[in-house]
Amino acid sequence: MAGRRDRVFHIVVLGVSGPTQVRGDLGVGKSCLCNRFVRPHKDEFYLEHINVISQSDFSGRIVNNDHFIYWGDAQKVMDGHETVFRIMEQTEFIDDSSFMPLRGSNTRPYIKRAAETKLSSSEKLMYICKDQVGDDLGYSQKLLPEGKFQVDGFIIVFDVSRVRNRTLESQMEFLSKLHQQVHKAKKPTIMVATKCDNSEEICLRECKQLANKLKLTLIETSATLGVNVDLPFLLLAAQIDKSRSKPKEISFNDANRKFTDQLRLATDQYLELLTQEVTDYHNVFLTKKKSFENGEIYDLTSVWPGRPRPRNSSGTTPRD
């Protein structure tokens, strides 16, 4: 049992990458998916991530002359135990002066190098957000353990929204070729539909057909909303380690409905909290907000999805 708890799952996230003529005007959502999975708190989620950078930033310790990003570790519960996921994203960085792919430590084309199962990058730092690049000292620093990453499984991302300068056909062709390379690695693979909160019906339909053709499990997600983000990683872990219980698959609509209900409940309870506690209308909002966040009045960790509980002067919650 201890061995099961101690295992670290090394997952790589893949998808259309490259200059504008390849990926289109927007990315396919690889970074947002990784961001939301590793750091799910709303204050740690960023919609914009790096793609076009300078040569000096490319050589910095975060990118480290690689076309992959180390996202760090995420702890999730499987079978009642904490399970660690270590996440890497394969991408392609573009020179901000030539707008062509920067020459990295691995010069193979994206589709071939993205399917590699042994990655190494000495002294590589964990990536957090785009502002960290060029200012790594201003952010938490965590090194890729031993500078090595042995891949256990892949997640292939399919963007089901419409993006200018990227056709549906070109994305399907790119992912089909990518899967051919990944399949050779003989590692468990799952397909993820991203941006389902802004999906086009035809894109989602073609995504399902492609997943069926490639015989891949498909999970529909929205990193922006935080819906169904953990599910593909947990399912992949169960494919990698057969002793793990397979989590129940849930459709995007059902997951989104559950998320909406929880959000509505949390909003109602927060408004109730304000009504009960803010009786002096001369209070400054930021001051009162800070007291809430510090738990001076209520244990706010129980606001969602449970009911807020009052705290006494000792800082503990009284029994019901």
From TrEMBL:
Protein name per its UniProtKB record: Putative rho GTPase-activating protein 35
GO molecular function: GTP binding; GTPase activator activity; GTPase activity
Gene3D superfamilies reported in the protein's UniProt record: P-loop containing nucleotide triphosphate hydrolases
Domain of life of the source: Eukaryota
SMART domains: RAB, RAS
Cross-referenced SUPFAM superfamilies: P-loop containing nucleoside triphosphate hydrolases
GO biological process: regulation of axonogenesis; regulation of cell size; Rho protein signal transduction
Species classification: Eukaryota, Metazoa, Echinodermata, Eleutherozoa, Echinozoa
GO cellular component terms, semicolon-separated: cytosol
Organism: Stichopus japonicus
